[in-house]
Design a protein that fits this description.
By secondary structure, the protein is mainly alpha-helical. The chain contains 3 helices and no strands. Helix 1 packs antiparallel against helix 3. The longest helix is centred in the C-terminal third of the chain and has 19 residues, at 42-60. The N and C termini lie far apart (31 Å). The model has no long low-confidence stretch (mean pLDDT 92).
Length: 62
């Protein structure tokens, strides 16, 4: 069985990233800085890991 691949445009990824930040009521910089000091709730940590994945995908799209 072939793995499922989800294709998203750059705009869709950026929109998802913005929605995630809104969900945890945080800016990217604040979330990044608090992640660096291990000062995130479990929900914020989940969001941060998702954002890191989105950033990785956006990096490869340049």
């Amino acid at each position: 069985m072939m793995p499922t691949v989800i294709h998203r445009t750059r705009e869709e990824l950026e929109d998802q990233k913005a929605r995630l930040l809104e969900e945890v009521n945080s800016s990217y910089e604040d979330l990044r800085d608090r992640a660096a000091t291990y000062n995130l709730s479990m929900r914020e940590l989940d969001v941060w890991h998702t954002i890191e994945g989105i950033d990785y995908l956006l990096e490869g799209d340049c």
